[in-house]
Design a protein that fits this description.
By secondary structure, the protein is of the alpha+beta class. The protein has 6 helices and 9 strands, in the order E-E-E-H-H-H-E-E-E-H-E-H-E-E-H. Helix 1 crosses helix 3 and helix 4 crosses helix 5. The two termini are 17 Å apart. Bound molecules: coenzyme A (COA).
C-alpha cells in the first residue's frame, strides 16, 4: 500500500483508491441500483440517478470515503470507507464498509482494497482498533474480513432479513493494532 497525502490516494498492486468525483455518477449509479449489491450491505438499491447524485455529493465531503478504481482505468467499480465510530473525535477506532459492482466480484479486488485500508488506518491514521461487520449469510464479505485479519467479536441475533427473506444475524469483527503488527511481522 502506498499512500499519497497530497492526492489522498491509496495505491495497491492493481488498484487506486481515490476520493469521489462528479464524473463518477454513472458508474456509482450502475452498482448502487443493483438489487444484488446494496441489500447485502444493508441499504436499499437506489431508485434514480438523482438519488445517487445526492449520495455522491454527501460522500464527496468525506475524505475517508474512497472510490475503488483499477489502475490505468479511472472508473469507479466500488467504494470503501473508514467511518468514525463511537465517541465523536476519538478517532482511534474506525469501522470499514465496502461494496463492489457485481461484474468485478471474485477477482480478489475487495481483499486487496480492504487490506490496503486496514494498513492505511493503522499506519497513517494511527488507529488502535478497526471494526467490520457483515450479515451471516454474506460469505464473500466474511472471507474478505477474515483474510484481512478481522476476528469475530460479537453477534446481533436476528438483526435483519437477508436477500432470500430469511432472518439472519449480524456478525461484528475487529482487528487491533497489536494483532495487525503481529500479522505484518509474519
Ligand atoms: C463482499 C464483496 C465486497 C466481496 O468482494 P470481492 O472482490 O468479490 O471479494 P474477493 O474476490 O476479494 O473474495 C474474497 C474471498 O471470498 C471468497 N468468495 C467470493 N465470493 C464468495 C461467495 N459468494 N461465497 C463464498 N466465498 C466467496 C473468494 O473466493 C475469496 O477467498 P479466496 O481468496 O480464499 O478464494 C462483494 O461480493 C460485494 O460487493 N458484495 C455486495 C456488497 C457487500 O456484500 N458488501 C459488504 C457488506 S458487509
Amino acid at each position: 500500500m502506498v499512500y499519497d497525502s497530497e492526492l489522498n490516494t491509496i495505491t495497491t498492486e492493481r488498484l487506486v483508491l481515490r476520493n469521489i468525483a462528479e464524473s463518477d455518477l454513472y458508474d456509482f449509479y450502475d452498482f448502487a441500483r443493483d438489487p444484488e449489491v446494496g441489500p447485502r450491505a444493508g441499504w436499499q438499491p437506489h431508485r434514480s440517478l438523482d438519488e445517487s447524485r445526492a449520495f455522491l455529493s454527501m460522500f464527496k465531503k468525506r475524505p475517508l470515503y474512497f472510490a475503488i478504481t483499477v489502475k490505468g482505468e479511472d472508473r469507479m467499480i466500488g467504494s470503501i470507507e473508514a467511518m468514525g465510530y463511537g465517541l465523536e473525535n476519538h478517532g482511534k477506532v474506525k469501522e470499514i464498509g465496502y461494496v463492489l459492482c457485481r461484474r468485478e466480484w471474485g477477482k480478489g479486488y475487495m481483499t486487496e482494497a480492504c487490506q490496503a485500508m486496514v494498513d492505511f488506518c493503522f499506519e497513517v491514521l494511527g488507529c488502535e482498533k478497526l471494526l467490520c461487520e457483515s450479515f451471516e449469510p454474506n460469505k464473500a464479505s466474511a472471507n474478505v474480513q477474515r483474510k484481512c485479519g478481522f476476528e469475530e467479536a460479537g453477534r446481533t441475533r436476528m438483526f435483519t432479513r437477508w436477500i432470500d427473506g430469511e432472518i439472519c444475524d449480524r456478525i461484528d469483527r475487529c482487528i487491533t493494532l497489536d494483532s495487525w503488527k503481529e500479522r505484518s511481522r509474519r
